[in-house]
Amino acid sequence: MKRTRRTASVLCLLGAFGAAAAIAQQRSAVEEIERYRAALSDGNPAELWEARGEALWKEKRGPKNASLERCDLGLGPGIVKGAYTVLPRYFADTDKVEDLESRLVTCMVSLQGLTPEQAKKDPFGGPGKKVPMDALVAYVASESRGMKMNVAASHPKEREAYELGKTIFFYRGGTHDFGCVTCHGADAKRIRLQDLPNLTATADAQRAYGGWPAYRVSQGEVRSFQWRLNDCFRQQRFPELEFVSPASIALTMYLAKNANGGVFDAPSIKR
Amino acid sequence: MADPMKIRAAMAGDKVEVKVLMSHEMETGQRKDAKGAVVPAWFIQNVTAQHNGKTVLSAEWGPAVSKNPFLAFRFSGGKPGDKVTITWTDNHGDTRTDEATIS
Hints:
The complex is a heterodimer of chains A (271) and B (103).
Chain A: H1 2-41, H2 46-58, E1 89-91, E2 96-98, H3 100-110, H4 116-120, H5 132-142, H6 156-170, H7 180-184, E3 189-191, E4 194-196, H8 202-209, E5 214-216, E6 221-223, H9 225-235, H10 246-258, E7 268-270
Parallel strand pairs in A: 5-7
Antiparallel strand pairs in A: 1-2, 3-4, 5-6
Chain B: E1 6-12, E2 15-21, E3 44-51, E4 54-60, E5 70-76, E6 83-90, E7 95-101
Antiparallel strand pairs in B: 1-2, 2-5, 3-4, 3-6, 6-7
């Protein structure tokens, strides 16, 4: 009897050690991934997209044979520096709240004479398919690197978008009863080895939003924020989030506003 | 036509440190597309680096090198203002040469 109890307590102790070792192993794996990312960031291929985007920005294209250099990204026509930190925002000319991608579509239509369908046709690149949108997004975003996020969200339409985005963020549905909040509503959650940011907490929201667009090593592509949201919807088994749809812009508005004050540090590099 | 490389060349002590980003698909020839057809191999085979016309690095690459490869190396004998030229050639015979000035 006595012996049995002693054995049991020894087993308990072993169990505790085992759990501690597993947690230590988990932490060191996360640290190793951090080291891997730091090593990669020196030669971030996103720079190739930035260079291509800058050339595309200045290139005369479309039926009107015009460049995008007069495009107003929110700080005035042609001002790229810092533009990403104030988007999404309300634009009087379209009477809409627009994020970077939708604003680029607007400029391709108004300045270069493309139809909206042509401008939106290839939103994301893939193997062997380079699209202008990815490159333009990388270029404009790179011009805001090191600056602080400063989304106003004061115009009634901006506030409306923010509230709509918030509703979408907390909305649960689909076959798995998922919402953004399922994965991004609590601290220190992981999916496999990826740390999931808690997007309802300021520090995490700032770091997460400030890290997109990003070069995804596993895909060999620069991915925009529109892509990030589109893929989150796919993982939630939601209907496809249409490129530059009002819902996608509203959700971006909610997340960008929550990241206000955070330093924008993208295009970054991710696994 | 391939996109330009991004080349940085800077003094690191008495040596020159060169960092190069190349834009290339680097298809291994092992992958299949959505229809099940093999995606043909397409990768950089030769890379050379020249300093003032003299070859300082020559490499043979294969399909194990990643897409959009990053190459970093050091060599002796360079000084600020000198030119470093990088050339790659792929298995299609496509080639690209770009130049940078050592800072």
